[in-house]
Amino acid sequence: MGVTRRALIVGAGIxxxxxxxxxxxxxWHIRLFERAASPRELGFGLALAPNAVAALGELGVADAVxxxxxxxxxxxxxxxxxxxxVLKQVDLPARDALGGPxxxxxxxxxxxxxxxxxxxxxxxxxxxxxxxxxxxGGVALRLTSGAVAEGDVLIGADGIGSxxxxxxxxxxxPPRASGLVAIRGAVDGALQHLGPLSAVYxxxxxxxxxxxxxxxxxxYWFLSLARGLVPDGLEDAAAIVAHMxxxxxxxxRAITSATTDLRYDALADRDPxxxxxxxxxxxxxxxxxxxxxxxxxxxxxxxxxxxxxxKMLSSALPVEAALRSYERERQRKTRALLYQGRRMxxxxxxxxxxxxxxxxxxxRLAPVTSIAKVLVHVNRRAGTAVDHGRDQG
Length: 393
What we know:
Structural class: alpha/beta
CATH architecture: 3-Layer(bba) Sandwich
Number of domains: 1
CATH superfamily: FAD/NAD(P)-binding domain
CATH class: Alpha Beta
CATH topology: FAD/NAD(P)-binding domain
Oligomer: single chain
Low-confidence stretches: 385-393
Shape: globular
Largest sheet: 7 strands, mixed
Number of helices: 12
Radius of gyration: 21 Å
Mean pLDDT: 90
């Protein structure tokens, strides 16, 4: 029997937990280090596109996640201006629209299923990484507490401000501001305000918002704004929503006013790296490729990363060669998504009356089937971990 290999994973978010599950399933001993006092996440939501659902299936947790999510058979919603004027009604079979099954979930549904699968015994909380050293053919992870953990590989899954990325790429520029701020919220018991719709999407001058059913009883919503629309110094989520609410219709006001679970973020990403890791160290999820939310692929790409990493480390390749192969495979698609997110963000943050008018006309005139084709293209471009071996062209 061979020696059990050890993986050190920094960050117990979606990417870190998924990596832990993927590696544990191929026989690795794993340890996750989370700087927060608890690995549990708040109740904000996310869309799980077909590639995310496929990756969850590879990790063995799809059924547990989908059981606590909203899985639409039809995409039934409206695209509106903030004042409620309907630009487009959408009613499409979900599989046809996206090329496969999708879901909308609150983060605790996804995060909780991943935590249950990975096991509490491998997670150390209140443990912040301070750096690493490559030694004795492996890697030593230093923690701010002074403790040191040793392993065969180190995976930085510690988000956009990754300590591991910072040491690997010490001369890199800081995260790149997008010119957008966002408020996210989740509320239970307000579905009546959506009526028969599963989603409402708003577009305005420098304004983007969506309200989406996320379970049998809950709603997830976000509000993305050009920074210039927010008074200087205002970062209180509820105050920003109240400041903007007068521009919105009754649906938006009713749902957001019932919401007490809110979060404010200044949206940012990073320029793509030429190489993610070196030696026995690599990056995963937002630590490797932080995406703006306009792609709808942030969580999905972390899941796909984890499955791809597990597949490479289960191959006959030496560990370092497997890590570099994983990075090459994932870099191409995540780089394309990063630039796609920037283009979409620029389109949505515009406040030009002419540009907004042309955007509205395009949405009104475009056949729903054409919108579906775009969605399918985005999902295919994002890729899955399942088809990685035949998608190298």
